[in-house]
Amino acid sequence: MGVKEDVYYEGGPHIGELIVNILLGFTVICLPLTVGAIVRALWLRFRITSRRITVIGGWLGRDRSDIIYSEIAKVVTVPRGLGLWGDMVLTLKDGSRLEMRGVPNYREAYDYITERLSDRARKASGAIGVKPKAKASA
């Protein structure tokens, strides 16, 4: 048989994203953001396991992306909702990007993901606006 795959997180975006965007929807200008949040709440699903990251989304949840950790070159995070949830962008070695919006407990998810990355990818990763740590010179 194969190697056991442990599930770290399986579910949709943080409920706070939907609530905030519905409240913003009362201003006509933010209606597109509200519609986007509703669509994400209905059809976007994340599955983060010990072997891969799966994002299911698109119209009626018909698009699926499976990424194994060895394909990831960099992970960048952006906090949202007072830090309760955040966005992640996974940059792959071929230059393509996979965006994960509204990830619940994104800091813990980021830590879980970066533990499984190569040293090079781990050093390139981080939060937006935070410079990578400088190497100590001998």
Structural notes for this entry:
By secondary structure, the chain is α+β, with helices and mostly antiparallel strands. It has a single domain, classed as Roll (PH-domain like), CATH 2.30.29. The protein is 28% helix and 36% strand. The chain is built from four helices and eight strands. A hairpin with a 4-residue loop joins strand 6 and strand 7 (97-104).
**How would you classify the quaternary structure?**
single chain
What spatial form do the alpha-carbon principal axes imply? globular
CATH level-3 fold name? PH-domain like
Q: What spatial order of strands do you see in the largest sheet?
A: 1-2-3-4
Q: How many structural domains can be distinguished in the coordinates?
A: 1
Helix content: 25-40%
β-sheet strand percentage: 35-45%
Overall mean pLDDT: 88
**Known CATH architecture:** Roll
N-to-C series of helices and strands:
EHHEEEEEEHHE
CATH superfamily: Pleckstrin-homology domain (PH domain)/Phosphotyrosine-binding domain (PTB)
- Unreliable stretches (pLDDT < 50, length at least 5) are none
* Strand tally: 8
> Which class best fits the helix and strand makeup?
alpha+beta
Show the helix and strand layout.
Elements: E1 7-11, H1 15-24, H2 31-43, E2 45-49, E3 52-57, E4 63-68, E5 72-80, E6 85-92, E7 97-104, H3 106-115, H4 119-124, E8 126-127
Parallel strand pairs: 5-8
Antiparallel strand pairs: 1-2, 2-3, 3-4, 5-6, 6-7
Helix pairs in contact: 1-2
